[in-house]
Design goal:
- The protein has about 230 residues and is mostly helical.
- It has 2 domains: about 1-95, no CATH class; about 120-225, no CATH class.
- It is built from 8 helices and no strands.
- It has helices at about 5-25, 40-60, 70-90, 95-115, 120-145, 150-165, 165-190, 205-225.
- The protein is globular, with a radius of gyration of 17 Å.
- About 40% of the residues are buried.
Length: about 230
């Protein structure tokens, strides 16, 4: 499969993933008291564009020898995009989206492991999920409100996927999440659009850190060690 074909298929897959993500973001039940917000057309357009770009970027890093990873990447992208949209709207990481997504991603990675025999990668992913979860749990307990339990549970999905790719990806993703989230929080405080008591959606920064690590993690590590 040529690079152009991979990019085209990945982009189309990403667009499909964006559609799924937006639909998932609209599944918050009314009984939870979370009324869906009216969003401008530009916001929806950016959501679909983000999915398409993610699919294209993921496709470029999926070689012909590992095509079986592409479905897992695209499901991961759709799920994390949906969770980002929900968290931005409601400061919530819903279990009804997170845990089914975690199960599907784990199943796809397991299927790929069986096909390729990469048992070490799967085991590393499991340990990475536990490690990232435990690390954010400690931070949440110490910070007393700085992290919500939804963010801590999100670490299971992110840690599984990042560590499956490699320990370097997990390290880069977690560090970037802390840096990006901290910078955004400081900027909001400086511009007086936030206060120490205001709820802060940290999930999107965990996701963005993971996306960057998956796509450019090795380049970042090489730059750092240069």
């Amino acid at each position: 499969m040529g690079m152009a074909q991979i990019v085209v298929l990945g982009t189309l897959g990403g667009l499909v993933g964006a559609v799924i993500a937006v639909r998932l973001a609209q599944t918050i039940p009314k009984r939870m008291g979370l009324n869906s917000k009216n969003r401008p057309v530009v916001w929806w357009g950016l959501a679909y564009l983000a999915g398409g770009l993610y699919g294209g970027l993921v496709a470029t890093m999926t070689t012909a020898d590992h095509d079986w990873l592409l479905p897992a990447f695209l499901v991961f992208g759709a799920a994390t995009l949906a969770l980002t949209l929900i968290d931005l709207d409601h400061q919530l990481i819903p279990n009804r989206v997170l845990f089914p997504s975690l199960g599907v991603v784990a199943a796809l990675l397991s299927a790929g492991t069986i096909a390729e025999g990469e048992w070490g990668a799967l085991l590393r992913g499991v340990f990475g999920a536990i490690a990232y979860f435990a690390g954010l749990l400690v931070v949440a307990l110490v910070a007393r409100g700085g992290f919500g339990m939804g963010d801590v549970k999100l670490a299971l999905l992110l840690g599984l996927f990042l560590a499956y790719v490699g320990w370097g990806a997990l390290a880069v993703g977690s560090v970037l999440a802390i840096l990006l989230g901290g910078l955004a929080s400081i900027l909001l405080l400086l511009t007086r659009k936030n206060s120490r008591q205001t709820k802060f959606a940290y999930g999107p920064y965990l996701v963005v850190g993971a996306w960057i690590a998956l796509i450019w993690g090795q380049e970042i590590i090489d730059w750092y060690l240069r």
